[in-house]
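Q: What residues go here?
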C-alpha cells in the first residue's frame, strides 16, 4: 500500500474516519419520514488529508489505482464518475453550501466491505466531508453534515436514498443504537449492549450477487410516494398503525397496499423495539426482527434467497430473531442469539449456504461503535 507521502509528495495534516452501519429495525421507513434504529460498525472509511492552495482536490484510494483530480469551482452534479463521485459530491455540496473548503489532497482507505449493504457510500461521503471541513477548522453540527452528505448522494451521485445511513455514520455513539425520528429530526441514544445480557448480535454478509439494487430501491421509494399522494398525506408516516386497515381499503392496487402495510407496521415495530429495550427486555426484540423480515420478504419484496435462507437457518438453529438489514436484494442479515449459540448459528448458516451452492458468507463483528471523528 502506498503512503500518503508517496502518492502526494507531502505530509498529511490529519485523518478523519466515518463508519458503516447496520440497522436493527425500521427498514425503508426513512424516506417515509419514519423511524430507524441503526448502530455504527467498527469498520470505517479513513480519509487522510492535506490542504492545497490551488482550489483543486486530488484524491487517491488504497483500493483503486491512480489519482483523480478536479477543481472544486468546476464541480457540477455527475461531473466526476465512479468511486471518486463520492468525494467529489462531498466537495460539491460543501461548496454549494458556502463553506470555504479550498483544495485538498485526500487518501481514502477502507476496511468496510463495499456492496455489502453496510453503507460504504454514506461513510465515504461523511468521511470526506469531515476531512474537508476539519482541514479548514470549520465546525459543522454532525446532523447537518449528514444532511449535506445525503443531498450529495441524491443530487450529485443521483441515488434517491434516505437519511439513515449518513445520520448513523455521523451521530452513532459506542455502546448505543441511534433512535432517529426522521419527521421530528430528533435522535435518542439507546443503550445497546447485547453481551451484558448474555446475548450476541450476529451480522452476516450473505455475499449475494448484485441484482439491480438501485432501480429496485428507486421503484420502492416511488410507490411509497405515490401511495402517500393517493391517501392525501405528505408521507406514509402520517398513517397511524390504528388507521392502517382503513387506509388499505382506500388503495385499489394489491402491490401498493402491501408496500404501505410494510412501512406502517415497520414503524410500529421500531416503537415496540425501543420500548422493549428501555424496559431491559432485549430478548423480546428477537420476534420483532423476525416479523420485520417476513414483512420485507412478503410485503416489500426486497429479499433474495440468500437472505431468506440465512434468516430461516438462523431461526432453526436457535436464534431469538433474525432479519435482513439495509436496502435489500443482498447485503447482510442480523441475528439476535444467546451468546453461547452465536458460533453454532453461524456454522448452521455456512452449512446451509454450502448445500444451496451459495457464496461463502462472511461474519462481521457487530460492536456498536462511534460515529465520525478526527483520528490524527
Ligand atoms: C439504504 C438507504 C437508506 C435506507 C435503507 C433501507 O441503505 O441508503 O436511506 O432507505 O436502504 O432502510
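A:
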Amino acid at each position: 500500500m502506498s503512503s500518503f507521502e508517496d502518492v502526494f509528495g507531502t505530509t498529511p495534516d490529519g485523518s478523519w474516519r466515518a463508519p458503516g452501519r447496520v440497522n436493527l429495525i425500521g427498514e425503508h421507513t426513512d424516506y417515509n419520514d419514519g423511524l430507524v434504529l441503526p448502530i455504527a460498525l467498527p469498520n470505517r472509511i479513513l480519509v487522510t488529508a492535506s490542504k492545497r492552495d490551488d482550489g483543486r482536490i486530488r484524491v487517491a484510494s488504497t483500493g483503486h489505482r491512480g489519482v483523480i483530480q478536479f477543481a472544486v469551482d468546476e464541480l457540477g452534479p455527475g461531473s466526476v464518475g465512479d468511486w471518486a463521485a463520492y468525494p467529489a459530491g462531498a466537495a460539491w455540496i460543501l461548496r454549494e453550501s458556502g463553506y470555504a473548503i479550498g483544495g485538498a489532497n485526500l487518501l481514502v482507505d477502507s476496511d468496510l466491505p463495499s456492496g455489502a449493504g453496510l453503507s460504504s457510500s454514506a461513510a465515504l461521503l461523511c468521511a470526506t466531508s469531515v476531512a474537508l471541513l476539519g482541514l479548514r477548522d470549520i465546525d459543522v453540527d454532525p446532523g447537518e453534515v449528514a444532511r449535506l452528505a445525503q443531498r450529495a448522494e441524491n443530487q450529485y451521485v443521483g441515488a434517491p436514498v434516505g437519511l439513515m445511513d449518513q445520520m448513523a455514520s455521523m451521530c452513532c455513539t459506542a455502546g448505543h443504537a441511534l433512535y432517529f425520528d426522521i419527521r421530528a429530526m430528533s435522535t435518542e441514544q439507546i443503550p445497546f449492549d447485547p453481551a451484558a445480557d448474555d446475548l450476541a448480535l450476529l451480522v452476516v454478509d450473505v455475499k449475494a450477487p448484485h441484482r439491480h439494487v438501485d432501480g429496485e430501491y428507486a421503484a420502492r421509494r416511488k410507490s411509497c410516494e405515490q401511495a402517500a399522494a393517493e391517501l392525501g398525506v405528505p408521507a406514509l408516516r402520517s398513517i397511524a398503525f390504528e388507521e392502517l386497515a382503513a387506509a388499505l381499503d382506500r388503495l385499489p392496487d394489491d402491490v401498493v397496499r402491501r408496500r404501505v402495510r410494510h412501512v406502517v407496521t415497520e414503524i410500529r415495530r421500531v416503537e415496540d423495539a425501543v420500548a422493549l429495550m428501555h424496559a431491559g427486555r432485549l430478548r423480546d426484540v428477537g420476534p420483532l426482527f423476525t416479523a420485520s423480515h417476513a414483512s420485507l420478504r412478503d410485503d416489500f419484496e426486497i429479499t433474495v434467497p440468500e437472505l431468506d435462507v440465512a434468516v430461516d437457518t438462523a431461526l432453526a438453529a436457535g436464534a431469538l430473531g433474525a432479519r435482513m438489514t439495509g436496502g435489500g436484494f443482498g447485503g447482510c442479515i442480523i441475528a439476535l442469539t444467546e451468546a453461547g449459540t452465536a458460533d453454532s448459528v453461524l456454522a448452521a448458516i455456512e452449512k446451509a449456504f454450502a448445500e444451496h451452492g451459495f457464496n461463502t458468507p462472511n461474519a462481521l463483528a457487530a460492536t456498536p461503535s462511534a460515529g465520525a471523528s478526527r483520528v490524527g
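A: Context that may help when evaluating the design: The pocket of alpha-D-galactopyranose is lined by residues 23, 27-28, 30-31, 119, 161-162, 164-165, 326-327 (CB under 6 Å). The chain has two domains: 4-192+370-375, 194-365.
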